[in-house]
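Two proteins were folded this term; both appear here.
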Amino acid sequence: MNEVPPVMSAASNTQAQVVPKTSLAAIWSLVFGVSSFCLSIFGFIPALILGIIALVKINGSQGQLKGNGLAIAGMLTGGMGIFVAAILAAIAFPAFNGVVQKAKIVKQENDVRILLVACQMHAADNEGKFPANLQDLYPDYIDDQSILEFLNNETHVMEPYMYFSGKTMESEARSLLIASPVVQRQRRVVGFCEGSVEQIMEEEFYRLAELESGGQ
């Protein structure tokens, strides 16, 4: 006797045909959302866009697509990633700025030290007299005129190093000879006649400069 194959009901056929698939946009939204912790806006923006696209398609798919949770999670993690990146940037910027400021101070110290040595060499060749101005050091005692100036980041203008002329090797040891035109962290780099280079507070610099003016 022949067996009759079971007959599937219409409801069963409908249920078999409607198997919702996970939205690829929702999946990629979560992927970019997680990656935004490393990629910042390059992860956050795709996560947000793909998440919105996924939700729109899922809501309009009449049950053929799923993945609302993935899309929402992608957008949330993307937002958290950009927030964390902003916090890290806020923490790192002062440290980076401090390094930049330190590098500028070191540059000024090196410039002043080079100029002091050049002045002493000039004095050795000219009866102990320092040059009338720093420009006189080029090209016999320095080979690069750019060292005579320093960039002021506030005005974006190259400013010449300050020079206290009229000095000789016999001048008072702690007498100012060269000073940076730019103040960093309330300090100014100065060079004394005896050859030392120091960072001094701006108030101290003005006090010494006033003594120089009074003595001339």
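Next, the second protein.
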Amino acid sequence: MTFFLKELWGPIVLSAIACSIIALLAWPVLSHHHAEWKRLPTEPDVLDALRKDPPPPGLYRFPYAMNHEMERADVKLAFARGPVGFITIADRHRPSIPKMVAGMGGYFLSISFVVGYVAWAAAPTPKLGAPQTLVAQITFTVALLAYAAAGIPECVWRGRPWKAWLAQLLDAAMSAAATAFIFAKLWPM
């Protein structure tokens, strides 16, 4: 493990930085995320209702029912009447962009660490001088899996539109390509 970190710290850090830049540019520059979020037609009424008895930060679903409660007649009626949804209530303070950017940087760094480890473990012996195409193939595949698969449970369990996941897949492919390029070019000889 020590040898792996000694040899691959450069591509790990550089790929995390590249992915952070891609993520920062994907939302404001590229248009594929613009239609993901919509305003509720009754937003003022919803906000007024939530302000009357503000829920603490957390994940909420409506109508709320768990396990065996799903079979109750009133719950079935509530689902049939709709709407059905999920909301996240965040801390009341304005979101801190620097804090979120730092959090995403840590995420990309941890993914790049795992990508580097898997590539090192999968590379043929001797590890040094593995073919660039093999390094690129391994790192692209692992990075794409890490970045793209993370959003699938949101689509399956929380109703996130699959179209939004496809936009995330595009971001994941760009990040995976950057990761593969950096690892292949900087792989130790």
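The chain has a mean pLDDT of 91. Residues 55-89 form one domain. These notes refer to the second protein only.
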